[in-house]
Structure formats: structure tokens, C-alpha cells
Specification:
The structure is a homodimer. In chain A, the strands form two sheets. In chain A, strands 3-2-4-7-1-8-12-11-9-10 form a ten-stranded mixed β-sheet, with helices on both faces. Helices cover about 35% and strands about 20% of the residues of chain A. Chain A is α/β, with parallel strands linked by helices. At the A-B interface, helix 3, strand 3, helix 4, strand 8 and helix 10 of A face helix 3, strand 3, helix 4, strand 8 and helix 10 of B. Strand 3 (about 75-80) of chain A pairs antiparallel with strand 3 of chain B, so a sheet runs across the interface.
């Protein structure tokens, strides 16, 4: 039972892009000031930062202290949380518990990642560290090739046409084209997706999220104090993490990610809602196959019917749930350790009615779904508009 | 105000050593089973892991999922926390808030590090990532050379004899010689310390903590439920983190670490105790100079009088406070991201009267002090024997 209810009072983000002229600290600072400037003088007690690759790609650990210093907020508590691509979601759970426990009153949860301007560093190898170094990477697996196994299996078991995955990418780019923060804000069509280059058969370029640089931030405080800082805010009514075996060979089933099912069920239960109650969701579509399986695991789609639901418009406004109005990882981009915080910022923006051309009308309850590894570390949160 | 009080109900650790025959996951598993076997069937809800270097030295991120899988505990929540050498302390704060908030009932807080068996990997470079990559490492600074600046300054300002630092190392090795988990469990004398090789003038080999492999674990639950699991436990009565500018050139004063002062004052206030009430402390003596400054910042010693207090026996049983009965980082060893959890395990062991030859008689209140970088990320906890 949660002892103190928690609100999101602000959010900020940078465009996901190739930010070759901005450092880790300046990217984070930009998103953080964006969030701080939206609220009335919040006295921030702690910063929790989601990040995966700074050690590999920027030779920097200890980035909690880095960003506290950048914002002139030392000596507040500041540290990093890491669960591969699920780092942002884990940071959100950490910030939630720091506020809910009464340890701190106002906590900034952020994520930052710089992936693109590293000459001579192996980004694919760095991202592969989300998988099992001893039992997967050692044998030559990459993150894309592991997901390719899932996609082959899905198409074999469910007889799903290859085109459905391409068409999901088309939908994501249609959404992302309206997002000023998106890395790839343009539309594509089925032919472009189907004919893009192979990454790991059957995964092609347009089945994959791009790599990008970016930072996102939200600010949390207790629900009862939220109106001190702002006139409009949302409440985190459900939140959970979950894990699974890191190497996929140890699993019973490749077509359901146990950690998503567990985290989602826990979050729904805590929030006292069902998948039907969710108006808008930002889900973790690293690859189009990840989206298909996740939509089923989250309860938005019948097992193996991803294509049918897609073509019925289930994932668009007016359907079952509006999926990834931001464009998702596919089009908004995937600044790895920041992605979970982007999702939380985007859902907050939707629930506050501030999403501009991306706005889903009358969105009252939203969900974030953030995943590390091939479903080995999953974080789900559910937010509700308060006023 | 803390909403639910938190107890430590168990602890476990491996010897700090060159564990060339054990992987990250098996080291963690050994410490964790050690802790689990001490209590009656705890249903663990989450694992928080402190670790700094696995990404660099074992090509592995996402180690929350790795250790949950190793223990057969998936799909529980599991993730990593990083604040350089302060990672263990940050993991403890995270676990504390997860229990105190009611998000989870039983949380395992652990730390694991493997540093020694990496052929061709640059351990010094990896550890340097605790300092500022852009403003310190780029210019050739190492972690030892930054601390050497502090030591030179201390001796210049306070006219402290060089021998006092050597004699602190002698005391740490005297303590560590009684610790079955210590990496360097042997005594030394002043001559050995003074004549050991230079690392970064004036820091010599015996001023430095060794690098080592190891894992430590504690198990937390709410105070009111602790007796369900065990007959003897301790309470965490104070806890805080704090940060400072990561590059030391930006600081007003090199002879006091603001983050230690802040974290300690917050923890004392929360615990409603003063430094005089502490019976035993495990402090972060990465270098002998770090010990001197930290003892002053924690309120155990007058400013600049480190040598005087040392020679009066202030830091030994019967003195002001028994410092590092484990031998500290100097002799027990410093498995970086695990060190803060070793300290918490050791203080728990002391307060429960289970420390064998290391036992400080009648220890009732203990303190841990864990530091990342040159004082840029500091975590202090205060524990009290309950029964």
C-alpha cells in the first residue's frame, strides 16, 4: 500500500537528434530548465537520472553529481539508475518511492543519453550490453538479431503477414510527423519500410528504432502539495517494475514477455483500472515485433491478432487505445536511458492537454511501458489527470 | 518525515579477493544466499544492485535482471544504481525508500564488483570515470592524482606529519587482520607504509585502497514486520545522500568535502543523534587523506587535528568512535560499487554482536559513510540495534 500519493507537476525535453554540439550535461540542463520554468519555485531535493551508455560512450560515470552541478543544485542527492533501455522507467519508480516514502518532497526524474557522435566507439556493442554478455553476446548475438528470432517465431506461429509490421512503422511515422521533439518527424509508406535494408533478417531498417541523443525530465512531489507549484498536474496511480531471465534461451515462451505481463498487471491492480480504461499509451517499440508482443502483453490486443487489431484502427485515436502519439521509439527516437522519461513526459503532456498536434482528445488516463533488454527489465506506470 | 520505519534483517558477503573463478552473477549469488539463509522465508519483492564497472570490465549492463535470474527470483523488480564508488550507499537509500513508501515489503540491497581479472582492460581508466571526463580526465588527471592534491594541501595547511597517514594505514591493517572477509588481512608497520612505492606523490601504495572483487547484500523490511523473519535486527534511523561539484577545481575548499558534511548532518538530524552517540563507524578511506578529511567532516575529529586524535586512540575501541573494525577500504578492500553495502553489512553485524574477533563491545549505534568520486556523491546511514 502506498503511503503518500505522488503527482507529476512538470515535464521538459529536448528534441531527439544528433546533438553533436551539446554535451551530456548541457542536454540534461536544457530539459531540466524547461521543466523547472513551468512551475513556481520548486525546491528540488533530489535528482534521479536514467542513463545506460555514458560510461562507454562519454567516459563518464557518476552523472548524478554532474547534472546536480550543471543545475547549480549541489549538495542535493543525485544518482544514476540503470536497467538498460528500461533505465528511465526504473528512475521513475525510484523517484516515486523517494517521494511516497517521505524521504524527499520534490524529486526530479530525468534521463539523458548521447549516442551519435562517438568516433571509434562501438555503439552496437555498447547497446548489446543490455543482453547477456556470457550467454548471448559471447556467441555473436546482437540486440537486433535476438529480436529477429522473436519476429520469425511470431510470423511462423501466427501466420502474420510481413506487411503488418511495415504498416505499424508507417503508423508510428504518421504520428511522429506531428511531434516537434521527434528525431524522424516524417511520414513513410509500406514500400519504403518493406524495401529498407536488412538489419537482421527479417528485421529491416524501418522495423528498428533509430539511435539518438536527448534528455527528458519530469518533476514529482506529493499529491497534496502539487497545487503549491502548479495549477494543473497528474497523479501516478499505478507503477511497477518486473524482470525476466536476461538470456532469451532460458524462457518458456518467446511470444510473450513475462516481465511486461507482470509489471502491467501490478500497475493495473494498484491503479484499480483495466486496459480498457487507458486512453493513451507510450509503449516500447524498439522493433516492430516488440510493439506487437507488447500490445498483447499489455492487454490491448488479442494474442496473435496484432495485424487484425492494427487494421481495425485499434491503436489510433477512437480505437481501443491511442498508441504512441509521439511516434514512439520508431519515430520520436530512442535515447536509450532517457526513453522511459520521454514517455512519462509525453503522457503528462497528453493528460494536461498540452500536446498540440499530437493531442488525443479527452485523454484522462495514460500508460507508459519501458523495456530493458529483450523484455528482461520492464517498467509500467499509469497516470491520471487530476485537474 | 519517514512514513514507515525500516529494519535490516539480514546480511551476507563474500571475501574481497581476486575471484578469478567466479563471475559477477555467482559472486552476487553467494552473498545473497548467505543473507537469505539467515532469515525465515523472506518473500523478496525487489533487488537493488550497486555497481560501477560491470559495463566496462565485464561487458555487462542490466545486471538487476542478471542477479534476479541467478537467484531464481524473476519476475521481481531488479535494477542497478550507480554513483561511482558511492553506488552501494545510493542503492541503500533506494531500498530504504522502496520499503518506507510501501511500494515493496521486502527488498534486497546488494553490491557487486569484479575488477581484477580483466586482461587488456584499463581498470584505472574505468575508475577514473568517477571524476569529470571533460574537465579532469581529459587533462590527464587520475583518481589518485586528484586525491594527491588534497593530501599535499592538508599537510601544507595543517603542518601534519607524513607519518600520521602511514600510521592510519597501520591501524586499518591491524583491524583488517581480524576480518575473515578482508582482502589484505595482515598487519603492516610504519616503515612498510612510508617506503612503499609512489602512486601519485605524496600518495604511496599503502595510502591506497586495493582493487578487489566481491559482493555484499543486506535485506530490508518494515520495522513492524521484521520479527516475522528473524529474532534479531537493526533499524535504519537516519539516512541521506548529498552531492558536490564533480570537478574539484570548482570548489571553495579542498579540505572539507561538502557532500559528507551535508549527508552526515541530514542523517544525524533524522536519527536525532550527534557524532558522540556513534559507537562504531565504517568510513570511506579510499586513500588515507580521504579518511582524515572524512573523520573531520563527520564530526569525529577537530579540523586539522587528525594526527592528534589518531595518536590519542580516538578512532579505536574505547576512544571517540571505533573506526573501520573491518579494516576499511584500506585492508578489507574496495570492490567499488559493493563497498557501501559491505559497510552496511558490517555495521549490522557489529550491532547484532556477530562480528567475532572484530566485535566492538556494546555497540548500539553505528554509521556508514560511502563516497563516490572525490566527495562528489556521498551517502551516510545510521543504524541502531533494536533487539
Amino acid at each position: 500500500m502506498i503511503l503518500r500519493r505522488v503527482a507529476v507537476i512538470s515535464y521538459g525535453m529536448t528534441k531527439v537528434d544528433k546533438h553533436w554540439n551539446k554535451s551530456l550535461r548541457s542536454l540534461f540542463g536544457e530539459a531540466a530548465l524547461n521543466a523547472i520554468n513551468k512551475v513556481k519555485n520548486p525546491k528540488i531535493d533530489a535528482i534521479i537520472v536514467g542513463n545506460m551508455c555514458a560510461s562507454d560512450l562519454s567516459d563518464q560515470n557518476n552523472i548524478g553529481a554532474i547534472v546536480a552541478d550543471e543545475l547549480g543544485l549541489t549538495p542535493i542527492t543525485a544518482y544514476r539508475v540503470e536497467a538498460a533501455c528500461g533505465s528511465g522507467g526504473a528512475a521513475l519508480l525510484t523517484g516515486f518511492s523517494l517521494v511516497s516514502s517521505g524521504v524527499y518532497d520534490v524529486v526530479m526524474v530525468g534521463g539523458v543519453e548521447k549516442l551519435t557522435d562517438n568516433i571509434g566507439k562501438m555503439i552496437s556493442f555498447s547497446l548489446g550490453k543490455a543482453a547477456d554478455a556470457e550467454y548471448e553476446l559471447f556467441y555473436g548475438a546482437t540486440f537486433a538479431s535476438l529480436n529477429a528470432l522473436l519476429m520469425n517465431r511470431y510470423m511462423y506461429v501466427y501466420k502474420t503477414p510481413r506487411e503488418a509490421f511495415a504498416d505499424f512503422a508507417v503508423l508510428m511515422h504518421k504520428n511522429g510527423a506531428k511531434n516537434p521533439y521527434a528525431q524522424l518527424p516524417f511520414e513513410i509508406n509500406r514500400e519504403i519500410a518493406l524495401n529498407s535494408e536488412y538489419i537482421a533478417d527479417p528485421i529491416r531498417l524501418y522495423d528498428c528504432a533509430p539511435i539518438g541523443d536527448g534528455a527528458a525530465v519530469i518533476i514529482l512531489c506529493s499529491l497534496e502539495e502539487a497545487s503549491k507549484y502548479t495549477d494543473s498536474f497528474v497523479e501516478i496511480i499505478g507503477i511497477s517494475g518486473a524482470s525476466d531471465t536476461i538470456n532469451i534461451a532460458s524462457r518458456d515462451d518467446l511470444l510473450s514477455l513475462k516481465a511486461t505481463v507482470t509489471a502491467a498487471n501490478n500497475a493495473y491492480k494498484m491503479a484499480k483500472v483495466t486496459p480498457k480504461d487507458i486512453d493513451v499509451a507510450e509503449i516500447h517499440d524498439t522493433f516492430t515485433i516488440t510493439a506487437a508482443i507488447s500490445l498483447e502483453d499489455l492487454g490491448f490486443c488479442e494474442r496473435g491478432k496484432f495485424d487484425k487489431f492494427l487494421y481495425e484502427g485499434a491503436f489510433e485515436p477512437g480505437g481501443i487505445v491511442a498508441i504512441n502519439p509521439s511516434g514512439g521509439l520508431k519515430s520520436r527516437g530512442h535515447p536509450v536511458g532517457a526513453t522511459g522519461v520521454y514517455q512519462a513526459a509525453e503522457i503528462t503532456m497528453q493528460l494536461l492537454g498540452e500536446a498540440g498536434k499530437m493531442q488525443i482528445p479527452n485523454a484522462e488516463i495514460g500508460l507508459t511501458h519501458n523495456m530493458g533488454g529483450v523484455g528482461s527489465s520492464v517498467y509500467v506506470s499509469i497516470m491520471k489527470r487530476v485537474k
